[in-house]
Structure formats: C-alpha cells, structure tokens
C-alpha cells in the first residue's frame, strides 16, 4: 500500500474528491486550510492580504495499482491550470491497523 499526500489550491477541492471517488480511493483525510508556497511556479498561498488564496491537503492510502492512475489524473489537472498549484507525494505504508 502507498500513502499519497496531495496539496492543492482550494479551487481543486471538489474535483479531487470526485477523482478519488471515480478511482475507488474511498478513505482520505483532508486539511482544509493549509499555507504553502510551491517550489517551481505559482503564487504563495498564505491567506494574507497580499497572498489571499489558501491551500488544502488530502492524504489517502491506496493499493499500489491505484497510485499511477491517480497521479496521472492529478498531473493532467495540474497542467490545465498550473498557476493554481497542485502537488502529490507518495510514501510506502509499512503497517496499518
């Protein structure tokens, strides 16, 4: 199993949850207001007067065969609107209960 942490502009929220549903990635945890700044492009998401937008984050744990289809769809979404910001990170899950 793999854990996928997805960080994204809040504008993506519904699209990402719908994508998880379509790919049968049922379980996830969402943090609705996180701050951040991308490593390549896009504007900071600080929730301030100067940088008013905010990010959200979702972590899901999925079977290995679901990782690449999810990453491919997220990459497509990011390429459509690069300035919004969307990143995904994958970690091995050693154990779960």
Features:
enzyme regulator activity; globular; 97 residues; N-reg_PII/ATP_PRibTrfase_C; 4-stranded antiparallel beta sheet; N-reg_PII-like_a/b; Alpha-Beta Plaits; 2 helices; alpha+beta; N-reg_PII; 30% strand
In total, the number of domains comes to 1
CATH class: Alpha Beta
Strand content range: 25-35%
Name of the CATH architecture: 2-Layer Sandwich
What's the shape?
globular
The level of helicity is 25-40%
* CATH fold naming: Alpha-Beta Plaits
- For the termini, the CA-CA separation is 13 Å
Strand order of the largest sheet: 2-3-1-4
Number of strands: 4
InterPro entries: N-reg_PII, N-reg_PII-like_a/b, N-reg_PII/ATP_PRibTrfase_C
Pfam family, one: P-II
GO biological process, one term: regulation of nitrogen utilization
Protein name: Nitrogen regulatory protein P-II
